[in-house]
Design a protein that fits this description.
The protein is an alpha/beta fold and about 210 residues long. It has helices at about 15-25, 45-55, 85-95, 125-135, 160-165, 200-210; strands spanning about 5, 30-35, 40, 65-70, 100-105, 120, 140, 145, 170, 185, 195.
């Protein structure tokens, strides 16, 4: 389709949301706003969609892709962990820009996963991203809609033309607030490891987990 549609996140059109969800559910690729940057998405369990996203981004296939879940209960889709650390982080920071790397219960289900059998997950606080994850009913990739290593897009105009052209549908919600991106924390090791500091300061993560970072 290669179509770009304007959308107001404060007054989302249910028909448009259903349309983008249908695109993703059918194996397509979408560009959509999140609480950090514009994201590039498809089903995390769809090998064809995953390969296309890697190709559009020029991303190394060995690097995992982060995904959105509709809510904390959907963690059961990807992991059987009931770890206290996971529970504290979810209760404290979700929905919001904290991405948590968890150990997958069935790594073979998700070609978007890391080679170590892990997956980076979060619940978005952006109404459109959250609705997309909810309406798809399974994990949705939400990687920055850029060329790997390039600037993360705050506007639809920042998204490279090749990415827009390669996507099936793009939503233009206007400029997004200034963001450092999602904070990424790996809880598959002890103590948890900071992969990237972002909109949730790691000091707050450490305080919530009673970790001494001095």
């Amino acid at each position: 389709m290669n179509e770009t549609v304007k959308v107001d996140p404060k007054r989302s059109d249910p028909d448009l949301l259903e349309r983008i969800a249908n695109v993703v559910r059918s194996g397509g690729i979408a560009v959509f706003p999140t609480e950090t940057f514009y994201g590039l998405g498809g089903l995390a369990a769809d090998e064809g969609a995953v390969k296309k996203i890697f190709l559009l981004k020029g991303r190394e296939a060995s690097k995992a892709l982060p995904v959105l879940l509709p809510d904390a209960q959907a963690l059961s889709w990807v992991t059987d962990s009931h770890d206290r650390i996971l529970r504290v982080l979810v209760e404290t920071f979700w929905p919001g820009p904290l991405t948590i790397v968890v150990r997958l219960s069935e790594p073979s289900r998700f070609p978007a996963a890391g080679k170590e059998g892990t997956l980076a997950v979060r619940v978005s606080s952006h109404p459109i991203a959250a609705a997309l994850a909810r309406m798809c009913g399974e994990p949705v990739i939400a990687t920055s809609a850029n060329i790997s290593g390039g600037k993360s897009p705050r506007t639809i105009g920042d998204v490279p033309a090749s990415v827009i052209e390669g996507a099936d549908l793009s939503l233009d919600a206007g400029p997004l607030p200034v963001s450092k991106g999602s904070t990424v924390v790996d809880i598959t090791c002890s103590p948890p490891r900071l992969i990237r500091d972002g909109d949730v300061p790691y000091r707050k993560v450490a305080d919530a987990l009673c970790i001494n970072t001095d």
